[in-house]
C-alpha cells in the first residue's frame, strides 16, 4: 500500500483534534496527535503548521490544538434554515430504509459531513459530524463533483494519493473518477458500491441553489435487494426535491 498523502494525513490530524476537543477531555498537542493518528512526530509538526497557516487549527498557550476559524467557516452552513430543517428528512430516510443518511459539503479535495442520522441498528461510527473525508470515494462526496469537467477534477485532485484510499470499488485515478461520474450522470444519481467502506452501498444527489452545488444528500448501508434499491432511490429523490426547494427559497 502506498504511503498516505499529505491531504489524508492532514484530514486525520484535524479530525483527531476536533474529536478530542468535542469529547470534553484535555486536547491534543503535537505528541498526542502523533500517538492518536500513528503519524510520525516530525510529519505532525509540518502538517499542523500548514493547518495553522490555513486557519483550520489554532494552538493555545499550552500547545494544545483546537478547531480554527476556517474549520467553523466550512461548517457554518449548519446555521442555515434549510440545513436545520434537513434533520427531519434525514431521520425519515434513515428510519424508513434502515440506512445512514448524510448531508455533505465540499471543502477543497475533501467533503465535510454537515449532518447525519442513522436508522435503528445501523452501525456507522465513522460518520461523525464535522469529519472530513476524501471527496472522490464516498457517494455524497462524488455528488459534490457532479458538475466538474475532467480538467477541473485534475486541478482539484492533482496532489491526492488515490492508491490505498477507500474501499475496493474506489477510483484510483482522475480518469477512473471521471468515468464513474459520467456513468452516474447517465443514471441520474451517484451509485457507489464499496467505494469508501467495504460492503457498503451508497446513493447520493447534489443539492443546488442559484449559484451551483451547495451540498449533497446521500444514504449508505448494506447491499439492498432490487425492490429496496428502487425504494431507496425514490425516497432519496423525494428528500432531495424537498431540500432543493428549501435551499432555493429567498
UniProtKB/TrEMBL annotation:
Q: What SUPFAM superfamilies would the database entry show?
A: GAF domain-like, Winged helix' DNA-binding domain
Q: Specify the IclR-ED domain's residue ranges.
A: 63-250
This protein's UniProt keywords? DNA-binding, Transcription, Transcription regulation
Name the domain of life this protein comes from.
Bacteria
Q: Which InterPro entries match?
A: GAF-like_dom_sf, HTH_MetabolicPath_Reg, Tscrpt_reg_IclR_C, Tscrpt_reg_IclR_N, WH-like_DNA-bd_sf, WH_DNA-bd_sf
Q: Which Pfam families match?
A: HTH_IclR (PF09339), IclR_C (PF01614)
Q: What is this protein called?
A: Helix-turn-helix domain-containing protein
